[in-house]
Amino acid sequence: MASLLTAISMALGVSLVVGVLVVHSVVDRSFRRGGEGYDLVVGPKGGKQPLVLNSVYYMGRPVGTLPYSYYEEFVNVDGRFAHQVEVAVPVCMGHRYKDCRVVGTTPDMFERLTYRDQQEYVFAKGENFKDDKPFEAVAGATAAKNANLDVGSTFQALHGDATHEQEFTVVGILEHTGTPNDKALFVNMDGFYLIHDHENREAQQHADHEHTHDAKGKCTHKGCSHGEKKISAMLLCVRPISPGQSRILARQINNGKDAQAVFPSKVIAELFAGMIGNVQLILLIYAVMIVIVAGIGIMVSIYNSMSDRRHEIAVMRALGASRSTVMMVILLESILLSLGGGLLGLFLGHALIGALSPIIIEQTGVAVSMFQFRPNELILIPGLVILATIVGYLPAMVAYRTDVAKSLTTTP
Amino acid sequence: MLNLKEVKKSFTEPDGSDLPILDIEQYHVEAGEQIVMVGRSGCGKTTLLHVIAGISRPDSGRVKVDDWDITLFTEPECDRFRAENIGYVFQTFNLLPGFSALENVLLAMRFTGGRPDKARAKDLLDRVGLSHRMTHKPAMLSVGEQQRVAVARALANKPKLLLADEPTANVDSGHQQQILDLVRKTCEEENVALIVVTHSPEVAEQFDRIDRLEELNQVAVYK
Fold this sequence. Notes:
Chain A has 412 residues and is α+β, with helices and mostly antiparallel strands. Chain A has helices spanning 2-34, 48-55, 68-75, 108-111, 141-146, 189-204, 245-255, 264-318, 323-364, 380-400, 404-408; strands spanning 40-44, 66-67, 85-97, 100-105, 114-115, 119-120, 123-126, 136-139, 154-159, 162-174, 184-188, 230-231, 233-238, 259-262. In chain A, strands 3-4-11-8-10-9 form a six-stranded mixed β-barrel. A two-stranded antiparallel ribbon of chain A has the order 2-12. In chain B, 35% of the residues lie in helices and 25% in strands. In chain B, the strands form two sheets. Chain B has a five-stranded parallel β-sheet, with helices on both faces. Chain B has a four-stranded antiparallel β-sheet with strand order 2-1-4-5. At the A-B interface, α8, α9 and α11 of A face α1 and α2 of B.
């Protein structure tokens, strides 16, 4: 019974290790997917990681803003960088609705960018917002569910504590992508500009002169600053003119004083190694410590049983078993208990993952199945055998040193 | 078949002094011979069996079994020799509780290093009248049945010598004779030399050769 309980504790420890390894893999894949589909993120000068966190994962606050005119350098035919860029998609951050970030962008976000291995965005319902419809919006799959939005629903974006009166209408809901886009709402960037422009005008009460606005909503009135549009960042797909074109463009941008360009995959790898990697390591250490404690439990269990089994060991010795044979029997018992518990733990861990897979897919977009094994789980088997050998050594030595004559004359 | 020469054995007392147990000048048993060894409690009968079986090493002297001087063996050699040549029946049967009757017999065969002979194990259990109880664990067997399994186990490896330490002491009187007859008959069939240690006069009087340890043992306290 004691052996069974210690094997179960070993199973729990191993299932925790499996859980940590799979969660790490899920977070890793989920994290890396966020930055797929474009080559560079261009944003204001400042920290690289905050820029990527904000513009890729929609986390934290924007690093700053870039003037709209800088964005035009990438998209206008005569722009400084236009010939090197295939697609440039602006993002404007700083708004939210319920728990979802509201991202101002252009229809190119879903028409010209891809995600995960060049997959194109697909709409589960409705369609993409139009360039000429400033108050249309698209909802990510999870965001639509969490914010209870459907095609035709309207919402008001919140900027700080202030709610804009102008409503956006949802015209499309994306399929699950397994990227941070699932949790965001996307609105036509021009809608943001029009709202801000309108509110600024009311606030400044510019009643003394008439304003006209161009197609992008920029104020054409000379000397007026309220129409100065800004963006938070840009997502760039670089035209493959020559090998290493992304690096060339990044260097050119970084050498200027306006903005910085970062490789999202590189920053994500740094983020993962620096932050999430450490958390995973700590969790893994805890899980391994639980396995070691379970191993010590096995040692205590076998060691405590040795006084009862000394007579049996003496009988085996009297029948001709050598010292090394009885030692191996005890070591084998320790290994069987550890491996048995470990295999049960592997099964439990994967069964748990199988049971939680619908939630994992919904939350992260990463598909996991009960039978999906991580290569580093293979280390569990030799690891458990080594642990069992170490913890079984003490009771095995008790068996080895059993005084046969003395133990035989003792009544069992 | 068995020769003991100038065998001495003593134990160390808690105060560090030596307590002599055995001092046997000469002792001889022929192949296939059946002997009963009698003596009062504590006179060294079990210690003598342990020395003959190689479980305990004598302090001095020679113990030859089938012309092999087991005192010259290393411990693993002695273990292997015991597994192959010496059977042992204990007073308390000492069957391993986690194994069935058949498995207990097969286990003894494993210690010879060869493959267990299942057919022989079944045959032995059949000969001791347990063909219908082979898969039963010791706890499910009567005391008499347990001792019969122990006899089958002791004969599993076709030993040349069977040592039986009070084999009927824990068996009820109804089964004592049955067990004794079984041991003697199977030893005779397999030409195995038998040394039965007992303090029971009823058991002793059935043997042609009765050895009294007090007469063999030169330790003064037993004289």
